[in-house]
């Protein structure tokens, strides 16, 4: 088993050999690549652990938001394990090589990347696929495949996330962006001192987790509509997405709580 359980609620200690850990803290699941001695590279054990952890989050009713991060201070994830690739003579990675949220696994709840160091190649992929990104000041981002003759088909959404000319520079040079530049071009939401990364990310996740769950899920789906639909189609799809939310008990609970000057009690129904 690749995923160690470190729930703060009192569950068992993480396995000594776990390279990916899963921890739920106040409704926020932290999925951590714990292989700092190899800059959290994506070995098979790590990839298996990410699959297991992602599936666990999808079905975990105690977790409203997922935070993906890496152990240590140097690397979020430096990408694929090149030694392993050389040994296995890997050519085209299979579709299930690692979880890609929204592509090969449906993750309806929000996800945040807490980038604690370099996010290169496959590490860039992991950060890119999350809904939000919080980065430490020393973090670096790069699609470095052109430096080693590998491919990055997973970067197809990049020109939707950042301006096309920025995407082209990232893909054609392979040169890294520092955290400040990544925030400037829209790849990152917040840049914080490394010592504050966990707390700031937890705060952001808790803000999201405290909102009406049906509205949060619909908001996430709505934000991605323009990536694959015309504006007119996006409006039409959005109406379909939000209609059940308007008709929900939570939609009545919100105004009632405001009227009664109390905190709403969300049921997700």
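-> sequence recovered:
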């Amino acid at each position: 088993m690749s995923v160690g359980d470190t729930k703060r609620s009192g569950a068992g200690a993480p396995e000594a050999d776990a390279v990916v850990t899963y921890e739920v803290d106040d409704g926020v699941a932290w999925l951590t690549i714990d292989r700092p001695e190899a800059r959290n590279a994506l070995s098979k054990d790590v990839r298996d652990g990410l699959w297991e952890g992602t599936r666990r989050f999808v079905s975990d009713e105690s977790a409203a938001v997922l935070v993906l991060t890496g152990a240590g201070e140097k690397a979020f994830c430096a990408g694929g394990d090149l030694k392993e690739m050389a040994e296995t003579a890997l050519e085209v990675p299979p579709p299930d090589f690692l979880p890609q949220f929204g592509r090969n696994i449906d993750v309806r709840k929000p996800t945040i990347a807490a980038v604690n160091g370099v996010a290169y190649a496959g590490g860039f992929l992991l950060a890119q696929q999350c809904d939000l990104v919080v980065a430490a000041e020393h973090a670096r981002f790069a699609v470095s495949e052109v430096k080693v003759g590998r491919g990055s088909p997973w970067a197809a959404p990049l020109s939707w996330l950042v301006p096309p000319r920025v995407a082209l520079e990232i893909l054609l040079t392979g040169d890294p962006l520092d955290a400040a530049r990544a925030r400037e071009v829209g790849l990152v939401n917040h840049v914080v001192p490394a010592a504050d990364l966990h707390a700031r990310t937890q705060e952001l996740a808790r803000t999201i987790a405290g909102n009406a769950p049906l509205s949060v899920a619909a908001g996430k789906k709505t934000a991605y509509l323009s990536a694959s639909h015309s504006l007119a189609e996006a409006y039409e799809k959005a109406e379909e997405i939000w209609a059940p939310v308007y008709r929900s008990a939570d939609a009545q609970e919100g105004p009632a709580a405001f009227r009664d000057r109390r905190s709403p009690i969300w049921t997700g129904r």
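The domain at 3-209 is CATH 3.90.226.10 (2-enoyl-CoA Hydratase; Chain A, domain 1).
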